[in-house]
Amino acid sequence: MKKIIFKIFTFVIVIAIGSAVGAYIWYNNGITKINSDSSDPIVFIVEANQSIDTIGDNLLQNGLISSKLIFSIYGKLNPSEVTAIQAGYFNIPGNLTIPQVYTILKQAQNKEDIRVTIVEGLRYDEVVEVVAKAFTESTKFSKAEMTNIIEHPDDQIFSTKIQNYLNDYKPKGKNLEGFLFPDTYFFSKDSSAKDVVERLVGTLFSRISNDDLAKAKSSNYSLYDYLIVASYLEKEANTKSDEEMSMISDIIYKRLEHGVEGSGSRLLQLDVTLSYLVRDWNYFKTHSFNVEKAKDNDYNTYIRPGLTSTPINNPGIGTIHAAINPIANDYYYYIYDLKGDVYYAKTLSQHERNVAQYL
Questions:
Q1: 335 three-state secondary structure
Q2: Of 19, 164, 165, 214, which residue is 20 to 30 A from 153 by alpha carbon distance?
Q3: How many CB atoms lie within 10 A of CB 123?
Q4: What is the pLDDT of residue 88?
């Protein structure tokens, strides 16, 4: 009996030691492994009195750590690291270990730096206005220079990384519409227009997941095509829910490949592309579409088949993901009622009934 008890006790001890060793290896691997290969910094903000649990959630959501659990355990084992975290903003690259992230969080950036928030769906001229307004006291930043860089990027000499991005994904002769990633940024007061543009472009490529890039490379569409479709979704998907954006994404591809209701015309028939041309998203609230619909140009998707020659704004990461990952469906039409609810239709007659009933 004693031998049996001893064997059981020994077995339990062995299991406990094995589990402890396994846990140590797991934890040690977790704190020594870098989070990603990206060296592009992401602006991360810690609010005053924010809990370490919330900070961990936000780091995970921004792709700056791969495990909130290990982040939390490290904090519990090193409480002085947690109490040293400052409120403020931080430029955190993705290629750090968890201890290195804690180190960065102990030193907030200069509060005198310029904060710029670029929302999703702005045209490049609107982005320039937002940035220029923030840089009003800067002597180095030039609004005209930023516009020129965006409109004529092929004439510029960018840093190696940014130039490689543009060489790989931007067609020659195109401007940077679609590449100016919407986010909150902090710039030093001596930043130049080129510094700003490079930061926006670099952030775009740091946010697109490797899975989405791989899908884009293996599909019949280029990443540039997906940026164009994503820019449509910014204005077409009213509620911005992931499912609705991906549903409308599929509708756009069906029209692009087969025409409306499979007509073969490949006309997208999107009102929002006409709004881009007149440089006013609200223009058709007070003007008729008919005049613009009659004009033959690259952005008239009622006359010209296929995609427009450039994106029509600068999309966020959610719409880019939806453009690359459409949800297959049988619809060709959609409308939103005044409450923001969406109604799909397979045929024009069904669509017209929806318009009559819900608008």
A1: strand
A2: 214
A3: 20
A4: 83
Question: Which residues touch 315 (CB under 8 Å, ≥6 apart)?
Answer: 120, 121, 178, 182, 227, 230, 231, 233, 234, 323
Task: Give tens-digit pLDDT for 226-257.
Answer: 999 999 999 988 777 899 999 999 999 999 99
Exposed, middle or buried, 142 (CB in 10 Å: 0-12/13-18/19+)?
Answer: middle
Question: Which domains does the chain carry?
Answer: 2-105 (3.30.1490.480), 114-207 (no CATH), 219-358 (no CATH)
DSSP states of 46-99: E-TT--HHHHHHHHHHTTS-S-HHHHHHHHHH-HHHHHTPPSEEEEEESS--HH
- Spatial CB neighbours of 224, under 8 Å, sequence gap ≥ 6: 169, 170, 171, 174, 178
Our CA dihedral for 164, 166, 170, 176, rounded to 10 degrees, sits at: 180
Paired tokens of 9: 């006790």
The model's pTM is 0.80
Q: What does the pLDDT look like over 298-350, one tens digit per residue?
A: 999 999 999 999 999 999 999 999 999 999 999 999 999 988 899 999 999 99
Helix ranges restricted to H, the chain: 2-32, 52-61, 68-77, 79-83, 98-105, 124-134, 143-151, 160-169, 193-207, 210-218, 223-236, 242-258, 271-277, 289-293, 317-324, 348-358
Are 300 and 290 contacting, i.e. CB atoms less than 8 angstroms apart?
Answer: no
Question: Chain-centre distance of CA 299, in angstroms?
Answer: 24
Residue where the block lists tokens 């059981």: 8
